[in-house]
Amino acid sequence: MENLETIWKEAEAHLEDSLPDAKKQWIKRISFGGEKDGTMILTLSSQFYKATTEKNCRTEIENMVSEIAGRDIPVEFAVDSSKKPQKQTAQKSERKSAPEPVSKNTTLNKQYSFDNFISGDNSSFAFNACKVIAQNPGTSFNPCLIYGGVGLGKTHLLESIGNYIDEHNPKMKIIYVTAESFTNEFIDSLLSKEKISSFKSKYRNVDVLLIDDIHFLQKKDSTQEELFHTFNELYDSHKQIVLTCDRPITELTDITDRLKTRFRKGLNVDLQPPAYETRMAIAMQKCREKGYQIDQKVLEYICQSINTNVRDLEGALTTLSSFASLVGKPVTLDIAREQLKNFIVSPAIKNNDITIDMIIQKTAAYFNVKEYDIRGKSRNKNITLARHISIYLASILTSFSLSEIGKSMNGKDHTTIMYSVEKIKSILDVDDSVRQAVNSIKNELIEG
Ligand code: ADP
Ligand code: MG
Predict the structure, then answer these.
(1) What separation in Å is there between the alpha carbon of 150 and the centre of ligand 2?
(2) pTM over cut 0.90
(3) Which of 63, 98, 162, 330 has the most crowded CB, counting CB atoms within 10 A?
């Protein structure tokens, strides 16, 4: 049996990778405090840190520790004031990396522009609307919401608006922020009066506010409240607001009606998956941009096979180009098929025909376990593997977000879902029986 300290080290690393910044700061303050009758003891330097860590991260910690151990491990928190010095270092480095009050437009990623966005029938309305906004910020289409599935260019367009304005109106203050960072910053600001007022003034004194992935705000009531006031203030003073979301506003749940109404004002535009010809144009553009040399036939194969997500298309190009430079040979169609076998499930991937229920049903049948157990909490090795595989398949075969997958797995949190996906990805290449299980269930689902 693995010792609890090793398990904690691994859990700590995973939690630091996967939790949002606001929660990560508590993980950094934890030390391993030993074990008592099979219970893992985690210590913090003060009662305050202990209480806050328990309140904020207890579930995530317990889930991660048990996930890694493959069995339920009780966790207890204790205070050990001798641990202070180490924690002061952590605080110091946090302070250093905390976001500075934005005075200039440093939040934008310069790699995204209208010039390197390929517009097709699927995206021309959104593309043209974003250009008009960038040319006349605050005057037309305010607010604007761009919505669409994962990897279809929402962030690309949002950042392009920011970069265009930054170039043509350098005096304008622009903030690009993901809804997740906005939430984390807001939580962090609650620690002091000065912080909250600097948070409010940071977001209420911009000319252009670009918020990415607002679906993240579901269930975050206080952040929604704060955004509502920020929104009103900016809107009333004719400042430009652009938002992105992975679904139409009407399909968001747990967002207050008054905020939904604000989001729906102005213009809502959607991004659809690109048609084959547009995918080819995007692939060729990415190859030009990154200097990849990939044969036309191989590009055609990739663009025929990956049809719903431009990010995956780019990932496939990067994989093949790295392979070609490692072996020093051009990529043939056979090599492409072999290299992309985990990437390209079939031309029918991510359609709406495959549901999470179907995935769980087939996985349960394959492993001869109960569907109920896959959704549940059992730590039985076989059931845990079936659960990881179901979650992994849901992430590659459906368009549901990790949080949505979590919801249909009896309300598991985003971190647990991400852990399962990463776990299967990391063993797929080295564990034949897991690969066989994944492929067999996958093929059955696609053919069925
Ligand atoms: P989303 O935010 O919708 O999940 P992104 O904007 O991050 O998607 O896009 C994923 C990747 O695909 C990015 O690297 C982006 O540059 C690229 N991409 C998406 N659509 C296009 C397009 N029409 N033209 C060029 N690149 C695109
Ligand atoms: Mg995005």
Answers:
(1) 7
(2) no
(3) 162
- What are residue 43's phi and psi, to 5 degrees? -115, 155
Residue with CA closest to ligand 1 atom 23: 118
Name the residue of 156, 242, 272, 400 to mutate for ligand 1: max ligand atoms within 8 A of Cβ: 156
Counting from 1 in the atom list of ligand 1, the atom nearest the Cα of 120 is 23
Give the tens place of pLDDT for each residue, 84-97: 434 333 333 333 34
Cis omega (within 30 of 0) on the bond before 74? no
| CA 221 – ligand 2 centroid, Å | 22
Return the number of other C-beta atoms located less than 10 Å from residue 17's C-beta.
Answer: 12
Q: What angle do CA 340, 346, 349 make, to 5 degrees?
A: 110
Provide the domain limits for residue 148.
124-271
Q: Is residue 345 over pLDDT 60?
A: no
Same domain, 140 and 265: yes
Domain containing residue 92: CATH number: 3.30.300.180
Residue 394 has, within 13 A of its CA and on its CB side, a CA count of 31
| Atom number, ligand 1, closest to the C-alpha of residue 157 | 6
Nearest-angstrom CA–CA distance, 23 and 35: 24
The rounded Å distance from CA 172 to ligand 2 centre is 23
Q: By percentage, how much of the chain surpasses pLDDT 90? A: 54
Counting ligands in written order, the one closest to the CA of 275 is 1
CATH number at residue 307: 1.10.8.60
Lowest mean pLDDT among 74-83, 193-202, 368-377: 74-83
Other CB atoms within 10 A of residue 263 CB: 23
d(CA 250, CA 404): 16
CA distance 422 to 265: 39
CA of 159, nearest ligand number: 1
**Would 349 be classed as within a structural domain?**
no
